[in-house]
Amino acid sequence: APPRPSAEPLRSGHRRADVTGMSAAASGQQRVDSMSSRAEALDAAAAELTAKAAALRDVAGKVRLGNEGELAVGAALDSLLAAGWHVLHDRRKSAQSPANLDHIVVGPPGVLVVDAKNWTGGLLHADDRGLKLGRWRKDDALHAARVDAELVEGLARQVVPAVHVVGVLAFVQDVGVTSPQLHQGVILAQQSQLVP
């Protein structure tokens, strides 16, 4: 019979295998933990990017509605050309600013600075604070219309000192303005009320 190996070397070998196996298991667990941590970070980044993409889509939709409103109001105002009015569309506020004035209309009674609003969400209410559409305050739009009219008036008076400039908020959607009205120095009118 062939000689049997002693039990001692087997035990030592098993111990080495156990230590090596534990080391491999610990190393494998570290890799799993690292990958899991990285996956969680990527999930968080993906959620943040998804939220940013949704916000950009929302802004793009509002810009699209705004552009459609500007085009609709511009088309209505262009009908004044035959009556001798001058209509300018999409003019920059200044060379340094990307902001624009939707429309400037020049005629016998003076100059109108028209801001097209394609708002939805309720009826417009004018009050001491400014404007409210449904449950949303729109005071900033009223203020901006006054500021835009003052800007154009300052420039126009360099050429025609007695010129009168008025801001207009022109609503594309029906917001319940039954006839044009002056509120805090700004004319409020539906698009359909701009041209006789």
Number of strands: 9
Q: What percent of the residues sit in helical stretches (DSSP H or I)? A: 40-55%
What class, by secondary structure content? alpha+beta
Strand percentage: 15-25%
Sheet having the most strands: 6 strands, mixed
Looking across the biggest beta sheet, what order are the strands in? 1-2-3-7-9-8
Number of helices: 2
The ordered H/E elements are HEEEEEEHEEE
Approximate shape: elongated
Low-confidence stretches: none
Describe this structure in words.
This protein has helices at residues 7-78, 139-156, and strands at 86-92, 100-107, 110-117, 124-126, 131-133, 136-137, 165-171, 181-183, 186-190. It is built from 2 helices and 9 strands. The longest helix is centred in the first third of the chain and has 72 residues, at 7-78. The model has no long low-confidence stretch (mean pLDDT 87). With 196 residues, it is α+β, with helices and mostly antiparallel strands. The strands form 2 sheets. Strands 1-2-3-7-9-8 form a 6-stranded mixed β-sheet. The protein is elongated and about 125 Å long. Helix content is 46%, strand content 23%.
In short:
With 196 residues, the chain is an alpha+beta fold. The chain is 46% helix and 23% strand.
List keywords for this structure.
196 residues, three-stranded antiparallel beta sheet, 9 strands, 23% strand, elongated
